[in-house]
Amino acid sequence: MQLDAILEVAIGLVVTWLIISMATSQFQEAIIEIINLRSSFMEARLQEMFKDPTLVTQFYKHPLIESLAAKTIWGTKRRPSQIPNQIFAKAAVDVFLNAGHGVNDIPAGTMSLEVMNQSIQESLKFKNNKNQVFARTLKYLIPKMDEGTAAVETKLSEYRENVETWFDTTMAQATVLYRKYAALIALGIGFVIALIFNVDSIAVINHLWRDPTLRQAIVAQAGNINPEESFSVTAIQDKLSALSLPVGWNDSATPTTLDGWTLKFIGILLTGSAASLGAPFWFDMLNKMLGLKSGKDTKKE
Fold first, then answer.
1. Residue boundaries of the structural domains of the chain
2. Grouped pLDDT means (10 residues each) for the chain, 301 residues
3. pTM for the whole thing?
């Protein structure tokens, strides 16, 4: 009986966190889109890779990259937030081989072996003068061009593969960092939502533990949650009210002592922290708990 009660309390708490997480995720996506975080993050990574603002500007002016730019609601173009590996490699190779010249004076795919060799030497010389750190990186990326090599496309393909690998490695590291930034944004949003609606995890746990009927009602509703549902401020309030949990600010929910406020802050912070894990995490957790609950009920019968 005690284990059943604990499981029901856990399900009720996860349902609460899932609702806050779903709202948080939608507000997070909107804020990330408004501040253009993905595009800014991509540009910052390219600055780190190229070590030269001029090369970054040339890269973004490449036709393949410009075609990925999206328009904002104001009609202005926004730099792409995602670049496929192969497109990055093709554009980057063109930019590297035309360093010191106009953007894409000679597309790499049209170069002969002799022209490519000459462009590489000029590019390395130019970058050594302008950017010695990036010049050393470039030497590792460029395959050896022997005069006896007849297959230009083979060497060009090798060059692009090296650039793709470089891009993959950098973006893998950048993705980890981006997720940390996104998680911090989600934590802030989740905390604000929890504060506005007074979703105190500690108070929710205490209330669920004392009310078996409410626990069972929430468990019965848990399987009907739609993870794709859109949320507005009103929808958050309606969803939380439908659970009959102690949320929202009123005289009885407002602490009167320092200890009470401290406990309240911890409970709200816990809710915000849970929301930062994302709706998919809590939806998966809820399904596992409901499966466990269903299994227990079947055994009883």
1. 2-34+180-300, 38-169
2. 82 92 88 83 85 82 84 71 85 72 51 53 55 60 54 68 84 84 91 93 92 88 74 74 83 85 94 92 90 65 54
3. 0.73
Cβ atoms 197, 274 nearer than 8 A: no
* Distance of alpha carbon 216 from alpha carbon 166, whole angstroms: 54
Residue with tokens 């106009």: 102
